[in-house]
Design goal:
- With about 625 residues, the chain is mainly alpha-helical.
- Helix content is about 70%, strand content about 5%.
- The chain has helices spanning about 5-25, 30-55, 85-110, 115-135, 140-160, 165-195, 200-205, 215-230, 240, 250-255, 260-270, 270-275, 280-300, 305-325, 330-360, 375-390, 395-410, 415-440, 460-480, 485-495, 505-530, 540-550, 555-600, 605-629, and strands spanning about 1-5, 65-75, 75-85.
- Strands 1-2-3 form a three-stranded mixed beta sheet.
- Helix 16 runs parallel beside helix 17 (about 395-410).
- The longest helix is centred in the last third of the chain and has 48 residues, at about 555-600.
Amino acid sequence: MLESETLVVLIALPLFSSGFLLLAGRKADKWGHLFATAIAGSTFLLAMIEMFAMVGREEANRALYQKVFTWISVGSFNVDAALLLDQLSICFVLLITGVGTLIHIYSISYMSHDPDRRRFFAYLNLFIAAMLLLVLGDSYLNLYVGWEGVGLASYLLIGFWNKKPEYATAAKKAFVVNRIGDLGLSIAIMVAFAVFGTVTFKGIEEQANSASQGAMVAIGFALLLAAVGKSAQFPLQSWLGDAMAGPTPVSALIHAATMVTAGVYLIVRSNFVFDNAPIAQFAVVIVGAITLLFGAIIGMAKDDIKKALAASTMSQIGYMILAAGLGPIGYAFAIMHLLTHGFFKAGMFLGAGSVMHGMSDEVNMRRYGGLARYMPITTITFGFGYLAIIGVPPFAGFYSKDKIIEAAFNLGGAKGIVFGSITLLGAVITAFYMTRLFMMTFLGKKRWSEGQRPHESPFLIWAPMVILSLGSIGSGFLLYSGKRLEYWLKPVVDKGGHKHEEFISHATVTTMALTAVLIGVAIAIAKYRKDIPIEAPEKVSIFTRAARKDLMQDQINETLFMRPGLAITSTLVKTDEKVIDGLVRGVAQVSLGSAKGLRRIQSGYIRNYALLILIGAAALIAAIWVVTL
């Protein structure tokens, strides 16, 4: 591992630019967005320089380390504020800065009429800085600082238009749900220190094989809790749909390409924990499997274009989490799908924003239709993302998602059949609801009002979409060809060089996956090629009503957690008032009563004091006389 003095610059540039823009005041309104974009672009260029330098070094010397300062030194607990750039973290650094820069460029035009545009760009740079710290920290404690910073930036960006009460509520909901997951990361850090005496990745990895199974399982489940919170996985997925309240660039950056993938990064980075905790690792697979179906089912019923894409994000990250839970056989595929998803999903979210821009901020797909004739660039770029996510060759998702399906089947036995079948079912549903979304938006007859005039978006909006669409086409092949990404990540996630058994051939999986895609597309075409009513039908099945309400996740959380929590809190408050405060008040009343009794004998008359002295002396003499008899 080589020493470096430049890694901190990657974080310092967006961090200080964010602070500068927030403090600069209205004087910076005219150029603040350009300054923030230039900083984001500079960070991406630095990341590219580091990437090329890393490729040029031998495998053993590719990782870079930089100690910034000694953060904590208390007894045996020593933590440095240090950064680590290796084959895994560079993937995220490039994704964060690259997609982040494109979203900055997009936002210049998209947010041009917002009076607080400078503040918006300051928050974007704060987010990028926090996300970079999250993936560059060399310990769980350093990662935790970035983890919390991302939560803060997410809260600020989701609630950016907080003058609308529902938007402010959505930001609070995201913040609170994420705090539950953050508790898991806190517990993992504390348990790790208690067991290993360190919280650095290297220190824990060196001792992981000799640690007790119970300790590793405890850390694994705590890390899983953190991951499901940040990545909107079951059962902490309820915040993601409401988070679409933020401006569309926020949805693309935070809830498609970067923040929600932090949980995947945490699990893959902690591979040495989960490889030594099979129970926790299997729990990761179960969570991913549930969520990929959960999100896909919700996506089928959403008419709001952004919420349909949010449900899709939930589902696709479920694929990544499932792959990460497969261990060495799946770590690289989880990251591959994460990277390809960053291209096609960010492109589709920006495409949704372009549609909203041309449709006077309308989000209901039932009021779209036929937009391909008016928005050709948006249609084509969104279409590339659509083909990528459903897994049509040669688009990106065909390579990354199919490898996850293959890895699931190659678990072997009953597990392989169950989880492989779940991933295939998810592929069918994904093809259905994404075809539904594309047809309702861009194809068919127009369903908008006469007063609307749909139009193509300006250059600064569609140019980033074009670049992301190119990633939707070619990123999968580039990462998959020659097993590039697998070999690249192997020194970090598969140091043991595990041998993977093949229970089912690649050709068979590809055939099944393409068949699943065709089934989903065919069902959607059959259902939506006819006229689509502007208003959603009221008479629908219980299943559809539940899907429209996010499978009752809010109601379930309210019943299982919120109301019992209120009851417990109410009981604790009453206990505090009647028992704790009662005891305190009782002591006070005894003291006051005693004081009142003593105050009565303090009359101020000398004769009374003389009488008391006489009585006391007599009593003392009598006591001595009794004792000496």
